Amino acid sequence: MSIETSASTNGFSPRLSSRREMLLQCGGGFGSLALAGLLQDTASAGPSSEAPSPLASKLVHHPAKAKSVIFLFMDGGPSHLDTFDPKPDLDKLAGKPIPESFGRVLTAMGEFDSPIMPTQRKWAQHGEGGLWISDWLPHTAKMADELAVIRSCWTNGINHSGGICQMNTGSQFAGRPSLGSWVTYGMGTENENLPAFVVMQEGKGRVINGARNWGAGFMPAIYQGTTMQRTGSPFTNLDRPKHVAGSQQRAALDFLSDLNQAHAAERSDNSELEARIRSFELAYQMQSHAPDAVDLSQETEQTRSLYGLDQKETADYGRQLLMARRLVERGVRFVQCYHGAGSKWDAHSKIESNHTRMCRGMDLPVAGLIQDLKQRGLLDQTLIVWGGEFGRTPMSEKGDGRDHNPTGFSMWMAGGGVQGGQAYGTTDNLGLHAVEDRLHVHDIHSTILHLMGIDHRKLIYLHKGRPERIDQNEGRAYTKIVKPT
């Protein structure tokens, strides 16, 4: 069905338009209205002939503790019971079924009545706060006073696909913006010559769900993450062809931009077009700025050694984290560094050999990142988040492994205004369920935004007329973790 206006002006008769086209044309600006809502309390910078960049730095709702986030994602689910949450009862009940008080426990892989498996770790208290950390993480333990360990995390995802998707987007299902997208939408970036949101994957594997984990969902595509290459040039097509002069490239891009803008003007509902247009200009700017940002040869041997670049087992992740530090000090807002891409932390069997290997590859670079940021005066303004999509069960799987445990696990934060040197929340005596100060993924996301000066209740994006928030109206900021001013 179509509608037609009866009036005409100067001989011009409006074309017929379907209801669908009318809704698209009217709804195409809803995202801009949401963005304008973020800025309604800010003073105008004056008239401009061009629309402001959607990635321009924005004012926040309250004083920010952190300016950037580095999310260290342990892909596959590390065992909290063998790293940050000691449970003496695992040894006392080793080989026995889980107590009847827990009810009939069915694991993610469908096992039940599996016996309790003790930990083989040695535990010690570290730092002035006496934080308990296992011997799998000797380097991280040296940074204990910077760590705020949250022992009471929980999620809904029981498998890797749903768990990783929810930890990144708040939902187990595809279609919602990632945390990095919400952060860049809400805060913009301080350096538009580099991507605002960067993603790196360590190892040869690929993270389950791929780009869904750092996608923009229903937001404009410009807020999605930019992946860095693992070998060669960090970004694809970064180098200008040798036979093309800078002036030639600039002229070609300007001409292409004019054509694209004319094309996009008739398709205002398609955010992919605007994102692609801006990506061309960003790519051009990156040719001048990105090579310096990712040039690790500028770092001293001492710094490279701090991140483990001189050791085979730590070189890959150390390279990521050193790159992350160079990016955030240049104004990049959100950097996500996957360790063990392809669920390498998944330890359904042989957890001893698996976690020994995985911890060894991650421990030194992570401690090096904290130490490096601190000595450069960047730790207070950079929030580091460490964790996976879930934890592991106290019961054994296949005799020497642990199954997925979404009902209770540990994550930690450091820098960015958090009070380190202590643990927050608890799990039960076996580490199966979070029981005190339980923090769902929605709460974790809300807390991260709070530390960045954003009220998660006010960060809204209108999608199809519906106000959307990262926490889907279920989260709360965990302010106990915030360092007092």
From TrEMBL:
<dbReference type="InterPro" id="IPR006311">
    <property type="entry name" value="TAT_signal"/>
</dbReference>
<protein>
    <recommendedName>
        <fullName>Sulfatase</fullName>
    </recommendedName>
</protein>
<dbReference type="InterPro" id="IPR017850">
    <property type="entry name" value="Alkaline_phosphatase_core_sf"/>
</dbReference>
<dbReference type="Pfam" id="PF07394">
    <property type="entry name" value="DUF1501"/>
</dbReference>
<dbReference type="InterPro" id="IPR010869">
    <property type="entry name" value="DUF1501"/>
</dbReference>
